[in-house]
UniProtKB/TrEMBL annotation:
EC number of this enzyme: 5.2.1.8
Stated name of the protein: Peptidyl-prolyl cis-trans isomerase
Function: PPIases accelerate the folding of proteins. It catalyzes the cis-trans isomerization of proline imidic peptide bonds in oligopeptides.
Catalyses which reaction(s): [protein]-peptidylproline (omega=180) = [protein]-peptidylproline (omega=0)
InterPro entries per record: Cyclophilin-like_dom_sf (IPR029000), Cyclophilin-type_PPIase (IPR024936), Cyclophilin-type_PPIase_CS (IPR020892), Cyclophilin-type_PPIase_dom (IPR002130), E_coli_cyclophilin_A-like (IPR044665)
One GO molecular-function entry: peptidyl-prolyl cis-trans isomerase activity
UniProt cross-references to Gene3D superfamilies, sorted A to Z: Cyclophilin-like (2.40.100.10)
Amino acid sequence: MLKHLVATLALFTSVVFAGPKVSVETTLGSFVIELNQEQAPITVDNFLRYVDDGSYVGSQFHRVIDGFMAQGGGFDAELNRLPTYASIKNEADNGLVNDAATIAMARTNDPDSASRQFFINLVNNSFLNYSVRNPGYAVFGKVTEGFDVVQQMAEKPTARKNRMQDVPVTPIVITKMERIQ
């Protein structure tokens, strides 16, 4: 009886917390992100807006730092800035943390300046988490399949290009990005 109850609760919990999934194909390989719409509704809706309108396709991972993160979504393969929708409210106080394989929104010094750029944490980056003194960076999902592809990004040589640092020498471009669930 107890075994059956535990199994039922586990199934119920996975259904309740299962969020939309997005497949990301890049010139380096593919991975899947599961989004947490329950804890980051504004951020997930914003991200999915760019996924659904197709504007992430052709963008590149323009900042990749081994032992830190891989950032993308804001520039095309020639490093031209891509158009954005309005900035969103920072949801970094949602209880999600910047652990390895999580995806978060990039922003400027203004906590509410995130628009289309995101980053995937290569390691646990607790200094990016929300606290009383730190507005933090809003985590809104996690890479659940293909994290090795993201890790491979950090192995590629980078250089300074167009006043930007840590740009992969060979662009890592998003070739397809779509909801799969």
